[in-house]
Structure formats: structure tokens, C-alpha cells
């Protein structure tokens, strides 16, 4: 038998928690489903249980999540943790796993607050043991205080790269080198956007202080590196790169790669929602109205970085806006006041995103790190290289879905999460057409692996 709710929210990060808190305060029956054991999402992972010492290492922006989490837990919204949502239909029916059993939940409105995921970073050797995403390393730090014992090399671009280095330094982690793929020209070229984003001075100062901390610790810092390649036979032994016309090699057994995050769009592709390719962020962004309502979809909303990368503060504001829109849907008498109630949050969102054009321009991942050379593996699950994908195009393949029939590319356990963007860009580049014309994988349920036993355990006999 299905369980019914006024609102189902997928994701208990900043956007999901604030939306749930606001809707529960308006006496709506709210159910929040999240894979983690505690609320917080990725940005505030483990915030309800972290020690004071670890919170100090992670910094004040992390600690600020405690208040939001406490308000959420006291709101009366039902929090189903350890829940893996593997299907969502347009009529707002969700199927999820918890403790090995499948459950069904139907709702009058659904808010997708699934956040972001790390962008693939396909360079030679990125599949070797000893290579991780910087975001994954931060998950270990937040979740269990786990840090590397040996010197680590951090490579790539974007604010998270500096943040992780800053946190590692506070935790006493030895950093062998920082290899920044962004250039001084990138930063200078983005300067006009920085002037427009001066209202975000606090964030600018915070970023500069992190870079200064790296400098004070005399960590080798290479800006504008090219041609990254990770070396090793059975695991990482070194990383090699070019800098100012010279080739460098640094011995290490751990390389952390990062070139930004992108919206987690698995649910919106599953729903056949309309998406547009963003040249500014080099990723797909679902089309929504200003409140996060998916176009041509009844009662399904986005909130947070799933609408486009903007950060934790913007995620909170987007959660507020989505909550207002959902309340207006569930209580039509409120519709007349929605615009006036939304106005302060619309203004706040504009301020939250003031720095985003600068960050997008300054830290846009380099083409060579998004569209790899022939020998580099693109699909980790099925070990398909960029060269193979180019060969498929020469044989008539016009898009990612056709590529599946040539090679099972995108059909492994990750279901295209780690290769989808790269496959789209490689095909678009080979055909010399826009990414929008190439498209993306046709995502199907289940979104996460489900066993036959788990399906058989369903509480809905019609499943």
C-alpha cells in the first residue's frame, strides 16, 4: 500500500531542509527522504554529530549548518534517512529503498533538492587506485575526520580546491603541491564580473585568505598547469604536468582531482524534463521558472544546486522560494500573496549569486580536461575510451544513446553519472555541433541498483 504526503522532498541538504521546515510550519504533511544517516547534505554532511574540533577545522561556513539542521529536526517534518529513491514518476509517485525493502510514496508536490555532484575529470591515469575527487576526500573528512597520512597532490580548479587545502592545513595534512589549471589570464578576464559581484565581498575575502594560507605554508603552487597525467602501474606513483613550457613530475601515492561541481540531473532526465546546455558552467541545467517549478510538469520543483551551481546560501534561498510555490499550489488562497512574499527572497537570491559570473568565468574547466585525448578512459564502468567514442561517431553515431549500442558506454553501475557530460562533449566536438544538438543519455529507472529480492519486498502489491 502506498503512503501519501502533501509534500515529498528528495534530499536533506540546505535547500531540502529549509523547504521542509517552512512547509511543516504551514501545517503541511512533509516527508523528506535522504540517503545519508543524518541531515545536512554534502555541504553540511554529519553536521548534527560532528565534534567541536572537527567543526573548527571545517570552518564557520560548515558550522553555520547546525542551526538549519536543528530547526529542520524540530519542524515536525518526517525525515526518512538511509533512503535511496530509485524512481520518480510524473504523477509524483516515488519508489525508495530502506533497509533492503522497497516502499512507495505518493505526494501532491515533490521538491527535488538533490544538489550537485563532482564533474568528471578524465585525464590519463584518473582510474588508478590512489586517485580521488577532492569532493570525495572532503566527504571522508566531514564524515569521519579521515585524512591522508602521506603528502597529497591536489590538482584542478575552483573554490573547493582551495577550501579543501585550507581545511587540510588546519587538520595537519601534508600537501605536496597544488596544481591549478586556471590561469592568471582567466582571473583577469573575469575581473569585470568581479566588479559587479562586489556585494559578495565576504566571499571574495574568504577565497583570498585561503589562497594566502597556502602561500604562508610555502606549499608549491603551480598556476596554469597543462597536460595532467597520473602515473603508475597498479596504483598512483606520481603525477606529471607541464608548466611554463617545462615538464614536472611529483612523486605521490594520492592525487585529488577537482574541476568544479555540476547539477545532479538524474531525476530531471528520468522525468524527461527540458534541459539546456550552459556554456558558462559547461553542463546541463533543467529549465524551471523563478520558483524552481519544472516546465510542463505538474507539482514538481527543483531547489538548490540542481537548478544550476550557486552555493549553499543560494540553495537556502531557492528552498525558501520553492516552499512558497508549493504552499501556493497546496493552498490556492495563498496564490495572491505569493509574489509579495517572494520578493525579498528574489532580491536575496540576486545577491547570493552576485559572485557566480566571476567564479564561472575564472574557473571554467579547461577544454583539454573535459574533452580528453583518444587513449583516456571516459566510461570507467565499461572502460570505454575517448578514441572509441570518436570511432563510433565516424561510424554514424550521433549521440550518447547510440553510443550505448556500440559499447555499453553509460550502462554500468553509475548509469552515466561519471561519463555523461564527457560523452556529450566528445561527440559534439567530433561532429562540430552544439551540445544541445547531441543531447544526453536517456535515463531510466531504477536510478540506483535494486536487487530482485528488494523489488519483491515492495509494500505496494501493484509495483
TrEMBL record:
Residues 378-456 form the SoxA A3 domain. Pfam families: Pyr_redox_2, SO_alpha_A3. Keywords: Oxidoreductase. Residues 6-318 form the FAD/NAD(P)-binding domain. One of its GO terms (molecular function) is oxidoreductase activity. InterPro entries: BFD-like_2Fe2S-bd_dom_sf, FAD/NAD-bd_sf, FAD/NAD-binding_dom, Metab_Enz_Cyan_OpOx_G3PDH, Opine_Oxase_asu/HCN_bsu, SoxA_A3. This is (2Fe-2S)-binding protein.
Amino acid at each position: 500500500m502506498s503512503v501519501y504526503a502533501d509534500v515529498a522532498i528528495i534530499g536533506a541538504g540546505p535547500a531540502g531542509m529549509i523547504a521542509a521546515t517552512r512547509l511543516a510550519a504551514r501545517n503541511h504533511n512533509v516527508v523528506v527522504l535522504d540517503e545519508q544517516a543524518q541531515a545536512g547534505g554534502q555541504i553540511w554532511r554529519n553536521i548534527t554529530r560532528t565534534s567541536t574540533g572537527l567543526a573548527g577545522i571545517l570552518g564557520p561556513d560548515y558550522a553555520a549548518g547546525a542551526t538549519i539542521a536543528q530547526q529542520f529536526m524540530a519542524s515536525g517534518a518526517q525525515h526518512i534517512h538511509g533512503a535511496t529513491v530509485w524512481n520518480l514518476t510524473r504523477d509524483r509517485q516515488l519508489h525508495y529503498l530502506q533497509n533492503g525493502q522497497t516502499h512507495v510514496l505518493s505526494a501532491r508536490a515533490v521538491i527535488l533538492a538533490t544538489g550537485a555532484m563532482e564533474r568528471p575529470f578524465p585525464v590519463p591515469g584518473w582510474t588508478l587506485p590512489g586517485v580521488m575527487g577532492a569532493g570525495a576526500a572532503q566527504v571522508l573528512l566531514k564524515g569521519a575526520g579521515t585524512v591522508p597520512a602521506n603528502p597529497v597532490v591536489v590538482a584542478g580548479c575552483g573554490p573547493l580546491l582551495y577550501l579543501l587545502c585550507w581545511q587540510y592545513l588546519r587538520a595537519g595534512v601534508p600537501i605536496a603541491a597544488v596544481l591549478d589549471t586556471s590561469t592568471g589570464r582567466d582571473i583577469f578576464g573575469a575581473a569585470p564580473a568581479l566588479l559587479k559581484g562586489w556585494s559578495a565581498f565576504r566571499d571574495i575575502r574568504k577565497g583570498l585568505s585561503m589562497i594566502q594560507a597556502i602561500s604562508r605554508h610555502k606549499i608549491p603552487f603551480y598556476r596554469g598547469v597543462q597536460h595532467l597525467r597520473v602515473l603508475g602501474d597498479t596504483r598512483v606513483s606520481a603525477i606529471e604536468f607541464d608548466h611554463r613550457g617545462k615538464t614536472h613530475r611529483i612523486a605521490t601515492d594520492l592525487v585529488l582531482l577537482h574541476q568544479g561541481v555540476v547539477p545532479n540531473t538524474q531525476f530531471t532526465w528520468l522525468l524527461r524534463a527540458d534541459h539546456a546546455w550552459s556554456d558558462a558552467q559547461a553542463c546541463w541545467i533543467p529549465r524551471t521558472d523563478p520558483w524552481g517549478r519544472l516546465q510542463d510538469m505538474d507539482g514538481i520543483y527543483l531547489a538548490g544546486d540542481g537548478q544550476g551551481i550557486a552555493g549553499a546560501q543560494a540553495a537556502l534561498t531557492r528552498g525558501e522560494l520553492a516552499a512558497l510555490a508549493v504552499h501556493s499550489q497546496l493552498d490556492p488562497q495563498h496564490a495572491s500573496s505569493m509574489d509579495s512574499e517572494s520578493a525579498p527572497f528574489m532580491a536575496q537570491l540576486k545577491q547570493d549569486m552576485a559572485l557566480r559570473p566571476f567564479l564561472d568565468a575564472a574557473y571554467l574547466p579547461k577544454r583539454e580536461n573535459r574533452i580528453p585525448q583518444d587513449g583516456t578512459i571516459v566510461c570507467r564502468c565499461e572502460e570505454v575510451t575517448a578514441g572509441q567514442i570518436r570511432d563510433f561517431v565516424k561510424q554514424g553515431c550521433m549521440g550518447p544513446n547510440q553510443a550505448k549500442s556500440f559499447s555499453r558506454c553509460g550502462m554500468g553501475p553509475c548509469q552515466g553519472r561519471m561519463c555523461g557530460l564527457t560523452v556529450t562533449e566528445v561527440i559534439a566536438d567530433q561532429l562540430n555541433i552544439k551540445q544541445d544538438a547531441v543531447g544526453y543519455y536517456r535515463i531510466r529507472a531504477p536510478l540506483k541498483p535494486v536487487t530482485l529480492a528488494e523489488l519483491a519486498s515492495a509494500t505496494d502489491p501493484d509495483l
